[in-house]
Each structure stands twice: as structure tokens, then as C-alpha cells.
Write a structure and sequence with these properties.
146 residues, alpha/beta, 4-stranded parallel β-sheet, 7 helices, globular
Length: 146
């Protein structure tokens, strides 16, 4: 049996999943798929903001099912790198990488990225005025996602 070359990179918010996946895909000549991009596309198709989705997802899991299926569908591809907190779960045969980073460093990375518009992050961080309030927001998000 020939194995497909699929790498899933997961980790906490701000740990560098996207940046790492971009670089690994570039070095290997693989295609990079981002769960964040999948979510943004599905939310756009559904006409929802991230905040609306988060409220709705507490009781209605229909969009979660669509997002999960979009990740599972990547199992049919070869030579790919996926950045997703749950990619390893939906594609268990992937080579799994987990990035661990101190929460304060991760929050500073997210806050800096948003402030410099380096990434098209759809997050509550964009509404935060300072690093301390951004840190509270990231911690609350992590607890909610558990």
C-alpha cells in the first residue's frame, strides 16, 4: 500500500501553525491547506461572521459538520500540509506535528499579526485595544473551545 504524503500541523492559537505549514509546504513542494481558510469560506457562503458562528455553534452544529467534512475530504489529496487544530483527528493517517508555545508569547504573536495586517485573521483579537485584553480573549477562546 502506498501512503499519501499528508502532514497535519496542530497547536494552540498563535503557536505558528499557519506560518510553519506555509514553510513546510514550500520546502517540500506540497500544497498548503488552512482550516482557517476553510472556515472563512464556509462562513462567507453562509453569510455569518465569526462571532455569529460562535454563538450559533453552541446549539447548532450544522456548520461544524460542514467544516469537519471539508477537512475529511482532504484525505483524498496527496502531498499536502494542513494547519488545523483538529486535522490530526479527521486525518489520522497523517504525519502529525503539534506546536506548543507559551500562551503569552502566542497572544503577542496574534496581536502583532492583526496589528500589522500580516494575516487575514477573523478573530475577536481585532477588536482588542491592548495586549492584556487580547490575552484575556485568547484564554477565554481556548476554554470555550475545550
Amino acid at each position: 500500500m502506498i501512503k499519501k504524503h499528508i502532514i497535519s500541523i496542530s497547536g494552540k492559537p498563535g503557536s505558528g501553525k499557519s506560518s510553519t505549514a506555509d514553510r513546510v509546504a514550500e520546502l517540500l513542494g506540497y500544497t498548503h491547506y488552512s482550516s482557517g481558510s476553510l472556515v472563512r469560506r464556509i462562513l462567507e457562503e453562509s453569510g455569518l461572521t465569526l462571532a455569529e458562528y460562535n454563538r450559533q455553534a453552541k446549539s447548532d452544529h450544522a456548520l461544524d459538520v460542514r467544516i469537519d467534512q471539508a477537512l475529511r475530504d482532504l484525505r483524498d489529496k496527496e502531498d499536502i500540509v494542513i494547519d488545523s487544530r483538529l486535522g490530526f483527528y479527521w486525518i489520522p493517517e497523517s504525519f502529525k506535528v503539534y506546536l506548543e508555545l507559551d500562551i503569552d508569547v502566542a497572544t503577542a504573536r496574534i496581536f502583532s499579526d492583526v496589528g500589522q495586517h500580516k494575516k487575514q485573521r477573523v478573530t475577536e483579537i481585532t477588536e482588542q485595544a491592548n495586549l492584556a485584553s487580547a490575552s484575556e480573549s485568547v484564554r477565554a477562546r481556548m476554554l470555550e473551545e475545550q
